[in-house]
TrEMBL record, chain A:
Superkingdom of the source species: Bacteria
Biological-process GO terms, alphabetical: transmembrane transport
Gene3D superfamilies found in the cross-reference section: MetI-like (1.10.3720.10)
Signal peptide: none
Lineage: Bacteria, Pseudomonadati, Pseudomonadota, Alphaproteobacteria, Hyphomicrobiales
Name recorded for this polypeptide: ABC-type spermidine/putrescine transport system permease subunit I
One Pfam family matching this protein: BPD_transp_1
Mode of membrane association: Multi-pass membrane protein
Cellular compartment(s): Cell membrane
Gene Ontology terms: cellular component: plasma membrane
Residues that span the membrane, as ranges: 25-46, 67-94, 100-118, 153-174, 255-278
Keywords of this entry: Cell membrane, Membrane, Transmembrane, Transmembrane helix, Transport
UniProtKB/TrEMBL annotation, chain B:
SMART domains attached to this UniProt entry: AAA
EC number(s) per entry: 7.6.2.11
Keyword presence, DNA damage: no
Record-level GO BP terms: putrescine transport
Protein name: Spermidine/putrescine import ATP-binding protein PotA
Alphabetically ordered keywords of this record: ATP-binding, Cell membrane, Membrane, Nucleotide-binding, Translocase, Transport
Family the UniProt entry places it in: Belongs to the ABC transporter superfamily. Spermidine/putrescine importer (TC 3.A.1.11.1) family.
TrEMBL record, chain C:
PROSITE patterns named among the record's database cross-references: ABC_TM1 (PS50928)
This protein's name: ABC-type spermidine/putrescine transport system permease subunit II
Main localization of the protein described in the UniProt heading: membrane
Single GO biological process annotation from the record: transmembrane transport
Keyword Cell membrane: yes
Pfam families (alphabetical): BPD_transp_1
Protein localization: Cell inner membrane; Cell membrane
Its membrane topology: Multi-pass membrane protein
A Gene Ontology cellular-component term: plasma membrane
ABC transmembrane type-1 domain location: 86-274
UniProt keyword list: Cell inner membrane, Cell membrane, Membrane, Transmembrane, Transmembrane helix, Transport
Keyword Cell inner membrane carried by entry: yes
Tree of life domain: Bacteria
Amino acid sequence: MANATVAATDRATAGQLSRPASLTLALPLILLLGLAFLLPVAKLLWGSVFTPSPTAENYLRIVQEPIFLKILLRTVQTAAVVTCLAFVLGYPVALVMSKLGGRAAMLVAACVLIPLWTSVLVRSYAWIVLLQRTGVVNSTLMSWGVINEPLKLIYTEGAVIVAMTHVLMPYMILPIFSSLRSIPPELDRAARNLGAGPWTSFIAVTLPLSLPGIYAGSIMVFILALGFYVTPALVGGPQNLTIATLIGQQTTELLNWPFAGALAGVLLVVTLGLVGLFRRFLRFGKGA
Amino acid sequence: MSSDVLQASRGLSPPKGEAIAIKGISKRFGSIVGVDNVDLHVEAGEFLSLLGPSGSGKTTLLMMLAGFETPSSGSITLGSRDLTHVPPNKRGIGMVFQRYALFPHMSVAQNVAFPLKMRGLAKAEIAPLVEQALARVRLQDYGGRAPAQLSGGQQQRVAVARALVFQPPVLLMDEPLGALDKKLREELQIEIKTLHASLGVTIIYVTHDQEEALTMSDRIAVMDKGRIQQLGSPVSLYHEPNSSFVADFIGKMNFLKGIVSGLDDRSIAITVSGQTISVARSQLGGRDDVAIGRPVQIAARPESLSPTQNGEGAIAGDIETTIFLGSHRTLIVRSDDGTQLQVQVPSSHRDSGVEQRGRAFVRLDPGAVRVFAGED
Amino acid sequence: MSTLSETPALDVLQSPPASRAALSPHLGRWLLHGFVGLVLIFLLLPTLLVVPMSLGEASYIQFPPKGFTLKWYHAYFADADWMSATWFSLKIAVATTVSATIVGTLASFAIVRGSLPGAAALQALTLAPLIVPHIVLAVALYLVFAPIGLTGNFFGFAIAHTMMSVPYVMLTVSASLQRIDPALELAALNCGATRAQAFWHVVLPNIAPGVAAGAVFAFLASFDEATVAFFISGVEGKTITRKLFEDIDYNLTPVIAAASTVMVVISLVLMGGVEWLRSRGAKAAP
């Protein structure tokens, strides 16, 4: 046992940077994260509890006033619906992408990556153009004679869901794609050789083995949807507040920093809690 | 960098090996002891192998010589220079790494030129030295290639050229042939031996391959559990191992259980498989605590066992199988008390090729065995 | 084989019903590919919609656009507000790229090749800006920056965006560092190089694709960033994303489409560069 451990350390530690040198190199990062991340977040949370005397008032207000509880629940519900939609629409894309090779695979990958690297703002703007009274959807439907009056599409919950599904779907597709890619193709062939049809083989082999990717993608989409600001702010309008837009409203319009801090605290705890729970599935990065 | 290294690399003085003295060196990783109080003196110009299984501490010892690990205690001296706290880039010791570690973004010539560039030599001085170093490993026409375009054996030779171009007094080699196939490995063993003889550089060579160590070394230090178990020439290690670990690790060895049945000043009588043999006290390896009635281990090389026709004074058993190995054959014999024995017999063209089966009697050459007492 | 097929029951076991297996994959695959095609259109179309929108004649948003004109681009490039916002964003993105790349590369090296106490905790903390909702970062940064005059300020933005971009650099650079043989650095030291020389001459050239990819990600993370920019912009110091945000809300003209197209083009050119680097890296390492 001890020998094996020594073997592992034999070359692994050779020529490592000394501790002071390592600390020196990491110091700019530590300072940056400390001053520009930990300190501001801590100050925001501190202000939600100490106003200046310690109080739970801001947190109690979230659950006691029905309007805030409703916004909270709607945020969770929207995030859940967006996650489900992104999965149902995204899984087949990941599946086809993992089976293709060469140019076709590059083309599909481009269709997934181009939206990912286009500003969220630009894509939300596009949805406004599509969904507004005189927008693409309404004018098309009217010219086809399907409807006579423009439908109210923009500034609805439906619009938020569709636009967010569009914006967040790449985060679902990419982890599922990478877990599907890591399944050895022999497994499917083995299942087929043992008598399973393509559908049975998919249900019995491919789907269970891609579960890590499904978990990773779903968690990613869900937490991003929970805290999403830009799309709900632009497409949702004032009557469709989410927790993120509510935080924005509390700070910019009402200047109620302690309450905004409490809302941020709740959002932070939920997000980090989910990440902590599903830590082992998550690998971050926008690259495929 | 020391000025003599520079001078040497300018070809002003002939390359010469230097001695290395390692005194009481230890390396602990937390609670794990990687190297445990090792003393070792390597002569100038010597070829010394550190041989041992993985985790024996041989690589850690090499890494301390190169300066990549800091010893927890002890000292390293090169010639008259204390190296213990000298950083790796100031040691002026050449090293060939396990997977060569050629810089993939540089050409072969740039790789070999790198140590000279780091020593501040002018371009005009570097070019002829690089050419000379590449010629030494027969790669003079490959300077412009990328390392990835070379075969494994060629890459290995580039690594040797890079390590020797600044004419270091000592060359460290960390399992340099491990990634190559057997035939190429044997070719390069001879090439490295030849280089060593012509340059006179001191070489410390880490390997877990006992055959390689036997082939190449002036002396071998067999390491296990962070310590040097035995230090000696290949011949003495092979014939006079001082522990059953060394006996087992080097070459093929049969181990038989025996009981001490008689004892005097010069010899020991041992009963083994119903036969009694007499061995000299000098054949006792390791600890000397033999007493009548105590169990001992008898270590016998396959070539010191021989098949015989009659069972008198021999160990009886059944032949399980025969292995043909060209110059000789090995009989695998299961003795009646259950010990498996390898018996080497010379083969000749008169061999029928028919596998021998059935009963066999094996005679032990008492003068060629080693006896280990007080071990388990 | 022959002995098995003599028994009909075993014969059935050997080959599952052929008819169903032959028909359904055909239809199934057709349906699957059709569905995926529709999803891809759903993904791509809204993203690229801004391009035709920016070229139409009408001064209000109209679809399908009629006519062809570059006047909205003229308007965009002639407008002092748009230009100052664009330059402000570009300057911030360049500064962010430089600082995030340097800070992230050094720290990755310390984490991968060094002996750092609490390296795992530091790594987790580094990724936090990717996880923590941007709205939380935005209000928290505003809270700290406003009193010390860092809102609407180049340095304030550079600090905030560097913090948010550093994870991308760390991810790509750490991955590159883990892929190269650590013995390369040891070999450089053994050849007489100092730590700094070994890093510059040997380590850096071999992780260059990872560093470059990290730099591009950092640039885009800053240039496209909208939420924090919305909160810490000022009347003077305003990013292109904040300007877009305001105009989408109050002043929906095709100039927005022109500005959006400029943003899309910048993003896609840079991402294309990363993909090119990546495919070259894949070829170089067989």
